Each structure stands twice: as structure tokens, then as C-alpha cells.
Amino acid sequence: MNARPRFAFTIHQTDGKARLGEIAMQRGTIRTPAFMPVGTAGTVKAMKPADVRATGADIILGNTYHLMLRPGAERVARLGGLHAMSGWDRPILTDSGGYQVMSLSALTKRNEEGVSFKSHLDGSAHMLSPERSIEIQRLLGSDIVMAFDELVPTTATREVQAAAMARSMRWAERSRKAFDGGTEHAARAAIFGIQQGALDPELRASSGTALKAIGFDGYAVGGLAVGEGQEAMFACLDHAPGALDEMKPRYLMGVGKPDDIVGAVERGIDMFDCVLPTRSGRNGQAFTWDGPVNIRNAKWAEDLSPIDPASPIAGWSRAYLHHLVKAGEMLGAMLLTEHNLWFYQQLMTGLRGAIADGTLTDWANAFRARYKGN
User: Fold this and answer.
1) How many other CB atoms sit within 10 Å of the CB of residue 247?
2) Is 200 a catalytic residue?
3) Which domains, and CATH codes, for the chain?
4) Which of 208, 269, 275, 370 has its Cβ near the most Cβ atoms within 10 Å?
């Protein structure tokens, strides 16, 4: 494993702003554009690690906030780290806990040091700072560590957004120093900085400048996919990635829907994560080239066709899936989750192939016409 590079991003080809590349790390290569299935609590829900890999995933995501509360980062370390505990032997990216600072804001108090909060599980008191976030990610054994940031809603005032962005940049510098201080872990892992600034071009540019001055292995566009809508998100992505180092990977956090991903790739994004394919699978929704399918609908009750003839679950009919979901059988959630993760990886394969062929615009337009037309 040590013969492989710590972190090396190579851009093989471009088509407009879109990039075809790969990230080489000690635990494996990540083909980009890449979609990372979300394993919030140390597992991609309803899936075994080998089955996640079989869908085509090169990397998965773990969650710092949830794992620090249960089973605890120190316990994960004693169990050999997140890879050994979960059985996933390829790269893992861990988020920093910054998203939960916003989503659980009723339980938090923020200051320059960090965020104090009460656990949503048992009410116990905790403090999450840039240094503690990096320490937790080190204990988990993360391959790609995320800097700790402060996320605020895009509906917040510009004054609030500017203050949060500036604090995020100060926290980014502290995160970088804390990461470098973990010498053994830092020698084999990477750290990404997170751009903030909501929908404001000036704030995004300032954030990008600050992050590049600190220096990171990759850069994330944070603070989107939080209710602003696709049009506003794309308008931001028309300029935000350009403020980041073009020779480093760009990661759009928490996105998203298949058509969101296609549009973001066209705007220069290389990496994605989202709970949507797994959450939708557990709730009876399947993603297809002809758009989402709600398998609960009565129209599928006697339909013997598969969700997709090429899907790994093609051996089960829509009628059977309808029955499983209506009956609340766990197999329904398992099969639909597997299909959705496969579909997302097929989407990424299609995008990579179109960039390689120089036909991304035609491919993306054809995808949208079919996906939205049905």
C-alpha cells in the first residue's frame, strides 16, 4: 500500500469546464467525476461493503459528528479505525461536522473557539473545534479529511454570510495546522478546504483566495444544496469553482439529484456525495434514465418488467418491488438502495465517457431531455 502516492490528482482530459481525471491514494484510485455513497454512521445503509464496491463506487463518506457521538472516535480507533471496523478497504472521506453545526443549530452555541452543543442522542455536552474535528477524523483513519467550517443558510444576511465565511477561513488555517500536526496520519492522508460565501460572488472569490493561500490537497464548494434551488446553485457554480486551484479536485458537498450532478460536472466539479440514492431507496423511490419512479404507486402492482434490464436487481420485477415496499419488507429497501447506487455510478460512468469523447454537451442535453421528459 505504501508504494502508492499519498495523494495525486491527474486531469486526463477536459471538455469545456468539465474534467476527466483520477485521484491516486494509498488505498486505491478514485475515478473523477466521482460520486461518493454516504455511510453516515460507518455503514452505507442497507448495503454490505462489497456490494457498494460492486456498484462501481471507488470511495465512500463517513460523518464526523455522528461517529464522535456513537460509537465514539476513540472507540473506533481502538477497533482498528473505520476501515477495519466497517470492512471497507478503499478510500473514505470524512466530513468535518460543519453541516451539523447548521442543521442542528438549535442545539449549538458558536464562538471563535468552535461549537459547543448538546448531543441529539442523549443531551450530553460536547465541544467541536477545528482541532477536535481533525483529531476525530484522524482517529477514524480518514483518507480525505475535511477542514472544519461554519455553514449558514443562503437566506442569511450578507453580513452574517461574510462573518461566517471569514471565520471559516480562520478555522481552515487551524484545521490545516492540526492536520499537519498528526504526522503519521498526514503522511498518508489528504485534507480539503471548504469554500464558503453563500451565493455571493465576491465572498466566494475571497474565500477561494484565502484557501489557496493556506494550501490544500483539494477544495470543496460548501454551503449549497441547502434549499436555494437548482437555478441559484448553478448560477453560483458558474463562478465559484473558478476561484479555486484548477489543478486540484473540486468537491460539491451534499449534491445531489442526477440532473444537479450533470449540471455541476459541466461547470467543473469533480466529486459529489449525497444521501439521496440511499434514502430514496429506503422510501420506495428508484432513479432511472427516464426519471424517478415511485414504486409504491398502484400502477406497478402487476408490472412484470424490471426497473432497468441492466440493473443488478433486474431479476426482480416492479410488481415484486411494489409488494415489498408496501409490505414494509426490508428486502425492498435493500434492493432499491442497491439499484440507486448502481444508477448513480452508471451516471458517473456516462459522464466520464462523454468527457473522454468530447461529447459532453450532447450527452448532457440528451440525458436531461429523457430524464425530465418522463
Assistant:
1) 8
2) no
3) 7-274 (3.20.20.105), 275-374 (no CATH)
4) 269
